[in-house]
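Quick start: read one record
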Amino acid sequence: MVIKVPFVDLNSQHQPIQTQLQQAIEDVFTKGDFILGQALSDFESAFAAASATEYGIGVASGTDAIALGLQACHIGAGDEVILPANTFVATLIGVINAGAKPILVDCDPKTALIDLEAAAQAITPQTKAIIPVHLYGQMVSPSQLLNFANTHKVLIFEDAAQAHLAEREGYKAGSVGTAAAFSFYPSKNLGAFGDGGMVVTTDADVAAKMRRLRNYGSSQKYVHIESGTNSRLDTLQAAVLHKKLPYLSQWNSDRLTIAQMYDRELAPLAYAGIIPMQNQSGTGHIYHLYVIKIDDSCPLSRQQLQAQLTAAGIQTGIHYPIPCHLQPAFSYLGYQQGDFPQSEKLSQQILSLPMYPGLKNSQITEVIDAINSSWELKEN
């Protein structure tokens, strides 16, 4: 089958700056500083500044950014960390790898973001931190988060893996809490040519500990202050990311324009139960993903609609089909079906449509036409 509209197309980003990317890689080859090199330091400083923070510490993945970032914030054994059940499993794994106890809560069905009222009900004397996941490119409300943290005396550690340069209420993603984790997986708004991640913070002590933890617990060669690991963002990847960073704002703006066209074209289908996830951030939403909800009033099931789009050559995704508490690997946490009804319901309703800079208006029209072509929708 011919793919008319891919889910993600990285070539549209890379081809116009291919010469710059190749030069960045060649410069690292020439210097030979492949581990903790100059290009890494340069990118760490640039990305931290772009995120309205002071320090950036590059690591091997977004998952490590969460695990090591929590440890750098002195969170570990005996500490409870609140996080949403509706997130990619890396958030949960990061908490577990930090040695802390994950406490899952439900989400807001309109935005898919963490439900802070549910989080408040989960507070115990052992609660040390909350991880707001800025899902799909939209931040959790900073004012509500800060009020939550002040009220309950907990630390905010942001999962900003999908929120590079997202904004809300005057805050940049990563600048609200004590620290934040980013991922540079290739399909992210700012993606590497492989895995990569970063922790950003304005706390000098957290930054110093992060640098030790990612490098075997050492700040001086062969002197190990604590038990760390090997999790460093490669200099080559940092060089690529640094070259791409100046284009990120425009790429994010392109994503917003695409999302706005989707919103306009899908608005007439609200009667049929096809509803985009709500944008409460205005132009600060960076749309890492564009997600619609096929609710109970829709004459089509999510499976039927996805199959129709596939048959029309349009790729889609589901983010995410199984909430964290129902993943077999984590059954030992003691959660059961029905514990988080909003997350469970969304997992059966959501569908991610193609979204990337360079997606053409004609391709968006193809997506909308494929949805409209369903005879079930036409009959309604």
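The longest strand covers residues 55-59.
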